[in-house]
Amino acid sequence: MSTDGYSFTMVAEMEIHERRAMLASSPNPDRSLDYISVLSGQLSPQPDMAPHDVRLRYVPGSFILHPDAWQRYLAAIGSMTWDSMELMAVTMVGDTNDHLVPRWIEISLSSVRAGADMQVIVDEREPGWNNENILARLDSF
Questions:
Q1: Would residue 6 count as lying in a domain?
Q2: Please, are residues 6 and 82 in contact by the beta-carbon 8 Å criterion?
């Protein structure tokens, strides 16, 4: 076990297709518009660790995520063992990006551990997509 409370276990505890199957979605009601969708929640990666606040922000492309599916997904992610918050965030971006095919997506994880604040932010965007007006508004979300 590492000294930071995460154990060194592969992400393969739950197969990729099992995790991604939890992410139920619906078609984007208007693909001609760029808008920001935000879902948040909490997860506890291990019983002896502080909860992690999780925020998903995305500009929908093909699909929008169902909020109840997001909560089920967080519960599944929280039941797994992770090497680091970074690995958890990268995995979550990969899963949601693959399922939703958004124009832009960001996962933010934050936690207080050993008296120190830690935050990991991972984002990805569709090649060629750039809407500076939308991205400039992100601070308000």
A1: no
A2: yes
What is the C-alpha to C-alpha distance for residues 30 and 48, in angstroms, rounded to an integer?
Answer: 43
Once rounded to an integer, what is the mean pLDDT over residues 107-127? Answer: 90
pLDDT tens digits along 55-92: 999 999 999 999 999 999 999 998 888 888 899 999 99
What pLDDT does 45 receive?
Answer: 66
pLDDT at 47: 65
Question: Which CATH number covers residue 34?
Answer: 3.30.1130.10
How far apart, in whole angstroms, are the C-alpha atoms of residue 109 and residue 53? 6
Give the separation between CA 34 and CA 104, rounded to whole angstroms: 10
Give the chain's domain count: 1
Q: 51-89: string of b/e by CB count within 10 Å (b at 16+)?
A: ebebebbbbbbebbbeeebbeebbebbbebebeebeebb
Confidence band for 4, pLDDT divided at 50, 70 and 90: very low
Under DSSP, is residue 49 helix (H, G, I), strand (E, B) or coil?
A: coil
Domain range holding 82? 11-140
Q: Is 19 helix (H, G, I), strand (E, B) or coil?
A: helix
Q: 104, 89 in Cβ contact below 8 A?
A: no
